[in-house]
Write a structure and sequence with these properties.
This protein is an all-alpha fold and 510 residues long. It contains 24 helices and no strands. Helix 8 runs antiparallel to helix 9 and helix 11 (259-271) runs antiparallel to helix 12. The radius of gyration is 30 Å and the shape is globular. PPR repeats lie at residues 152-186, 187-217, 223-257, 258-293, 294-328, 364-398, 434-468.
Length: 510
């Protein structure tokens, strides 16, 4: 989240202000903030100042030595305290890990039924949080064997939600049945968790069946949260009619949609470029006195118009939302940067960057990825590299997206040696790479007609456990074709067709 050190009412005017001189985003700036300049700091020294230090009296010298000794003693004490604290922390961690290891060993008929509740519950919580569903179910099985165990609906609900996130709806249903068998009270929360598990996996028929079951159960009536979950799942698979039917059903049953419900519709319609439907939902939301737009409403609307290139409409919407008292956050500025960058409106993009710096909005990995990619696509390698160095100096770890932007820019500029530098970064880090990165690398080498390096990318993918896809081989075929190596291009195309015919994932190019 952004850290804004200025009062809310001190923000400059909104985007579409008629006076460009008072408008932070639309004023025509030729120079960006010094933070984004590639300049080395200058240093200066004063001989007169040095002279004053040289002319100190013996008494002043003794005082300085005494102060220095006191300071050194304090630093030594702090260092000792840090070491003691570190040793204690390590000891606690080792004891915890050793105790939790018991959980994994104590299986079978002779297992312990007197494990400490805190140890078992902590182990279960950690696995649920990390979405390690198989391990979590094993720990839960051990938990149920303890002498102190009592069935608790909340624990079951947490596990069912976790299984839904892990796309394990059948396992979630098994737990739901066990919950009933253990005599736990079934509530609308447990039904909603199960409905969420099915809807997350795209099993909408099952989810609707559970919704109908809830409607017929007096004690488990669906609420706005239940409907919002199912609406979101419908919209994710572009089942807009079903989502609208659910919204109508809510109104019929007297359940008022909340801000999250409306935001889900606005975001989905915006991504599908269904602007008329999006504006209709927004109007409906504004007419609801008990449901006000928030920053997520603003961000979804700005993203919809910005990604479709409708910058003027985006700016007008920004002005209206600010007029309604909704203040931007870091995601808002990321959307503006991305929209201006893709539209090659670099002056406005630089103005947003300066605004963020002026009002102390902390940049995230997403912010850096957007601006690095924008300047890379513009061929401004100097600014791109400066931003990348700034990103690393702030200890923000580059992602696969960052590296793709660098490789793509260097490939377009024909800088093969710079790509080698990116690969050195990869070799000295634990950045998780995917097929998309290697496809970018393949494309960059192909553009520069570095065919030997291009073919080596397949070996790199094999070492990293990444499987080439159709894009990988089509990129190779296109590079060979553009480079006048028609025979190589036909060979790869034939291998792709053979692989598709035999349902193999990867043609053998060795």
């Amino acid at each position: 989240m952004a850290a804004n050190s200025t009062p809310t009412n001190s923000l400059p005017p909104a985007i579409n202000h008629p006076n460009p001189n008072n408008h932070v985003f639309l004023r025509q700036q030729r120079a960006t903030h010094p933070k984004f300049q590639c300049s080395s700091p200058s240093s200066s020294s004063s001989s007169s100042t040095d002279g004053k230090f040289m002319e100190r009296s013996p008494h002043e010298g003794r005082m300085d030595i005494a102060k220095l000794k006191v300071k050194e003693a304090g630093e030594r004490k702090e260092e000792v305290n840090r070491k003691i604290a570190s040793q204690k922390a390590i000891s606690v961690i080792l004891r915890r890990e050793a105790t939790k290891a018991v959980i994994e060993r104590k299986r079978g008929p002779n297992n312990s039924k007197k494990l400490l509740p805190r140890t078992v519950l902590e182990a279960l919580h950690e696995r649920i949080t990390a979405l390690r569903w198989e391990s979590a179910l094993k720990v839960f099985e051990l938990l149920r064997e303890q002498l102190w165990y009592r069935p608790y609906p909340g624990m079951y609900i947490k596990l069912i939600v976790m299984l839904g996130k892990c796309k394990q709806p059948e396992k979630a249903y098994e737990l739901f049945r066990e919950m009933i068998e253990e005599g736990c009270e079934i509530s609308h929360e447990s039904y909603t968790a199960l409905l969420s598990a099915y809807s997350r996996s795209g099993l909408l028929d099952k989810a609707f069946s559970i919704l109908n079951e809830m409607k017929n159960s007096p004690d488990c009536q669906p609420d706005v949260h239940t409907y919002s979950i199912l609406i979101k799942s419908c919209l994710q698979v572009f089942a807009f009619n079903k989502a609208q039917t659910l919204l109508s059903d809510m109104v019929t049953r007297g359940i008022k949609p909340n801000t999250i419900t409306y935001n889900t519709f606005i975001d989905a319609y915006g991504k599908a470029k269904m602007f008329a439907e999006m504006e209709s939902i927004l109007v409906e939301m504004l007419s609801d006195d008990g449901c006000k737009p928030d920053v997520w409403t603003m961000n979804s609307t700005l993203r919809a118009f910005g990604t479709s290139g409708q910058l003027e409409t985006m700016e007008k919407c920004y002005e209206k939302f600010q007029g309604a008292g909704i203040q931007p956050n870091i995601q808002t500025f990321n959307i503006l940067l991305d929209s201006y960058g893709k539209a090659e409106s670099y002056e406005k993009m630089s103005a947003v960057m300066e605004y963020m710096h002026k009002y102390h909005y902390t940049w995230t990995i997403v912010t850096y990825n957007i601006v690095i990619d924008a300047f890379g696509r513009a061929g401004n390698l100097k600014q791109m590299e400066h931003l990348f160095r700034l990103m690393r100096s702030e200890r923000i770890k580059p992602s696969c997206v960052t590296l793709c932007s660098l490789v793509r820019a260097y490939g377009q500029a024909g800088k093969c040696e710079k790509i080698d530098g990116v690969l050195n970064i990869v070799g000295n880090s634990d950045i998780m790479l995917d097929t998309v990165f290697y496809n970018c690398l393949m494309d960059a080498y192909g553009r520069m007609e570095c065919f030997a390096e291009m073919k080596k990318v397949l070996g790199m993918m094999e070492q990293r456990g990444c499987k080439p896809d159709k894009t990988t081989y089509r990129t190779m075929a296109r590079a060979y074709s553009d480079g006048g190596m028609a025979n190589h291009a036909r060979e790869i195309q034939d291998l792709i067709r053979t692989a598709e015919a035999s349902k193999r994932t990867r043609p053998d190019l060795r």
